[in-house]
Structure formats: structure tokens, C-alpha cells
Design brief:
The chain is built from 10 helices and 10 strands. The protein is an alpha/beta fold. A 5-stranded parallel β-sheet has the order 2-1-3-4-5, sandwiched between helices. Strands 7-6-8-9-10 form a 5-stranded parallel β-sheet, sandwiched between helices.
Length: 254
């Protein structure tokens, strides 16, 4: 995810009076906000530096298909959401083309300015609290390695740690995660045994698991792959490569 400040961009056909009022109210609430026209170039130049998009739909205006496709593809890549403003039929037209996961809120005109600003503020508060971050559980008996990987990933993801397979199973009985990074070679309860337990329980069988392994020889790697995890990482992997591969994984599994 790109580093972003609390910045919202307002996208519309033109910078109308209503847009200027909404931007003024938003700025008064201490949130950086700027208008840009509905073009691929404008979206491309500003998407990576914002944390929220507001799409203002003039009555009867059809957002160009290339802009909508470009915008939504990049929103998925950069974990962005948008607020929609427009007439009910225009809102529905966008909702029919866009995944609901990308839409933070919808406002039918006329817009309640105060409610809009409060919605924007609430969204930034959720970002600050990490509510939209993917949740990863790292399971490894090496506490130093646990701490290292947590430091590598904590700015992008909500990280939880377990230093044994049984601790992980117990923790998962009360918590939800989007991915488990599981040490393959652990004493007492090995990674494969933990995976077997996870897959035998209806509550955890669908959680994606990626193995962490210290053995890179062909035989060891084939033994890991045979268990059909979502993937595996050698423990020699470096920070940026791990971050990039996890980003690719979550982008592909939106």
C-alpha cells in the first residue's frame, strides 16, 4: 500500500457549486480535499496519494467506462474505498458495475452536508485504527523471527502472533484472520499437523495458509507443496520481497 495522508479527492464532471460546498465543509473538518475531473490522467496522477475518493455524479451523467475501470482496478490494488453521491438511478448504475467492497457510503441528492463530513471523518478514523487492514496470524516457535516479521509487516497489516501450533488453534477459536503464515518445522505440533487440524474444523478450514520453511532443497520444498497450502516462503526471504508477495496475494484474492 502506498503511504498516504488523510487526503480525499473529489471526482466529478465539473467543479460544481455543490462540490465546492462539500469540499469547503470537509476542509473545515481538517481533512485535505481537492477536486479533479473524470479523466484517466487525473485519476492516475492522484489516486496513490489519497486515502478516500468521493465520486460526484451529475444527474444523467454516465461516468466514462475507461475511467471507471481504471479507477476501480487501482482502488483494489491500493486498498481504497469511495463515497458515491448522485441520483438514485445513477448510484445504482455504478453499484451494478462496482464491487460493494469498494463503496464506503452512498448519498442521494440533496446531500446532507454534515452527515457527509461525519462519514468522511469516520472513515479516516477507521483507517487510523487499522480497521481496513488485512489480518495475518504468524505462527512460529522462534520468538525472534516472530518479532522480526511483525516489524516488517505491521504498517500494512494487523498482525497477531502465536509461538506454537496449539496456541494458534486456541487463538483462532476466538479470532478471525485473512491469512496464516505457518512455520513448517515446529516441535510438539508441526506445521503440517496444525494445517490438518485447521482443515478438519469447519470454522477454520477455509483460512488461507502459507508455510514458512527454513529448508530450500528440492525434496523439502516438494514436501511442503504436497500439502497444498496457498503458498510458501523460505525464511531467508527479505523484507521487501515478502511485502511485495503478500501484496500480490491479497490483490489477487480480493
Amino acid at each position: 500500500m502506498s503511504e498516504r495522508n488523510n487526503r480525499m479527492i473529489m471526482i466529478g464532471k465539473k467543479e460544481s457549486f455543490v462540490i465546492r460546498v462539500l469540499m469547503k465543509k470537509t476542509k473545515e473538518a481538517g481533512i485535505d480535499c481537492e477536486y479533479f475531473p473524470c479523466t484517466v490522467d487525473a485519476v492516475n496522477a492522484n489516486l496513490k496519494s489519497c486515502s478516500l475518493i468521493t465520486l460526484y455524479l451529475e444527474e444523467g451523467y454516465s461516468l466514462p467506462a475507461d475511467v471507471l475501470h481504471f479507477m476501480t482496478d487501482n482502488m483494489i490494488e491500493h486498498d481504497l474505498k469511495m463515497i458515491l453521491i448522485g441520483e438514485q438511478q445513477d448510484l445504482q448504475a455504478i453499484c451494478d458495475q462496482v464491487s460493494g467492497d469498494l463503496i464506503a457510503a452512498k448519498f442521494a441528492r440533496p446531500v446532507d452536508n454534515e452527515l457527509f463530513v461525519q462519514t468522511v471523518r469516520d472513515h479516516f478514523k477507521k483507517i487510523e485504527e487499522g480497521e481496513f487492514k488485512k489480518r495475518i496470524l504468524i505462527v512460529d516457535d522462534d520468538t525472534q523471527y516472530l518479532s522480526l516479521v511483525r516489524e516488517w509487516l505491521r504498517d500494512r497489516y494487523k498482525i497477531s502472533l502465536a509461538n506454537s501450533g496449539l496456541q494458534a488453534i486456541k487463538w483462532l477459536g476466538m479470532n478471525k484472520v485473512d491469512l496464516i503464515l505457518l512455520d513448517h518445522e515446529m516441535p510438539v505440533t508441526s506445521g503440517p499437523q496444525v494445517l490438518e487440524m485447521l482443515r478438519s474444523d469447519p470454522e477454520t478450514r477455509s483460512i488461507p495458509v502459507m508455510f514458512l520453511t527454513g529448508k530450500g532443497d528440492k525434496e523439502s520444498v516438494m514436501a511442503v507443496v504436497a500439502l497444498r497450502p496457498e503458498g510458501y516462503f523460505l525464511k531467508t526471504i527479505q523484507r521487501e520481497e515478502l511485502r511485495e508477495k503478500l501484496k500480490e496475494y491479497f490483490t489477487l484474492h480480493k
